[in-house]
Amino acid sequence: MRALVVLPSYNESQNIVDLVGALLDANSEYSICVVDDASPDGTSELLAQAIEGAPGWRGRVCLITRDKKDGRGGAVRDGFAWGLAHDPPFGAFAEMDCDFSHEPGAVPRGFDLVAQGCDVVIGARYPDGTIIGWPRRRRIFSFLANQLARRLIDPSIDDYTTGFRFYSPRAVRVLVGQPQRYKGYIYLSESLAYLLREDLRITSFPILFRNRERGVSNTGLREIGSALRGIFAIAWVYRRSRT
To answer: What's the predicted TM-score (pTM) here?
Structure first.
């Protein structure tokens, strides 16, 4: 099955070439779309050089460079829109972070579950996944955000804030066809609310999540606090749509 992995990237020059190479080596039917928000560290330039110097990458790696930093959610949406317009079509889609916090070796399992008929597959840290290297403060914020989302939106989802996800084409069409009200990581909860509303088949599998060892995290306390507040608004819209 031909599959597309979308990588939203900002300041990932330390990781991007290695990650793209690992994904391409995992399966000859995988393609990669990197959406870079004009990283000041030259991420786009480095990847463009790698594509030019590796004949096996040409035709399998797409680089989209946006004019400015505009959030993870918008970057993923742009990658999905490119993938939906691609000919021949892709049979499955994925999104994941560029910092090796999501293991490339777990990607085939996610795509296998899509091939078995799932519309959305979540690589989940909760309840049975493993988190390595997170400071206590980050663990607390993540736990609170997910518990709040489960209570306010739908308890069937255990990990609303993971960015390691796999989709059928139907699910991706739902996502790009809906408005994006939030930027950054809060869009992860917003997008799941859209998918739940459509009664798609959603499942998950536990993952090993390793706090980034290379590069600098782009998620700060301000964004985490904004996400906690945004969950209330997302839940209100979701519940109105279900009545």
So the answer is: 0.94
